[in-house]
Specification:
Number of strands: 8
Helix content: 25-40%
Distance between the termini: 24 Å
Order of helices and strands: EHEHEEHEHEEEH
Largest sheet: 8 strands, mixed
Structural class: alpha+beta
Number of helices: 5
CATH topology: 2,3-Dihydroxybiphenyl 1,2-Dioxygenase, domain 1
Shape: globular
């Protein structure tokens, strides 16, 4: 079942400048990583803020072969995707597909952060959605502010 809003990912051109702005806005420091287990794809650097139990991720890439780089090249800065937390992604995605939603992958992906799949922006009024079943470690990391 979908449990809650997990977070939002924002594509930015200059990560250092964006971090400065978001630190002032949110009053918290981010965790910065280019680990593909955190950012899901190679070549992406992410700054993750945990604010009131939700994740706000600033992401950048100079590589136009990954989703963030492609997004920045085509659309510029902005909301890349919105994430929802699932406690059974296989069941949730199957149900959503039965209801007519189209996902990026036929099989849910698996990373160090958990299982994931995406509903492309073209299918959701211009906003890409991520369905995420985080591993227990990520649930704990989020509680502790990553």
């Amino acid at each position: 079942m979908l449990k809650s809003f997990w977070g939002i990912n924002i594509a930015v051109k200059n990560l250092d400048e964006a971090i400065e702005k978001y630190e002032k806005l949110l009053g918290v420091k981010p965790t910065i990583s280019s680990d593909p287990n955190m950012a899901a794809f190679l070549g992406i650097t992410a700054a993750s803020f945990v604010f009131r139990g939700h994740s706000i991720n600033l992401m950048t890439s100079n590589d136009t072969n990954n989703p963030v780089g492609k997004f920045l090249e085509r659309r510029g800065e902005g909301v890349l995707l919105v994430s929802l937390e699932s406690d059974d992604i296989d069941k949730d995605v199957a149900g959503m597909q039965k209801d007519g939603l189209q996902f990026l992958w036929d099989e849910n992906g698996q990373g160090g952060y958990g299982k994931v799949n995406f509903i492309p922006a073209k299918n959701m009024n211009g906003v890409q959605w991520e369905i995420l079943e985080p591993v227990p470690e990520w649930l704990e990391r989020k509680k502790q502010g990553f």
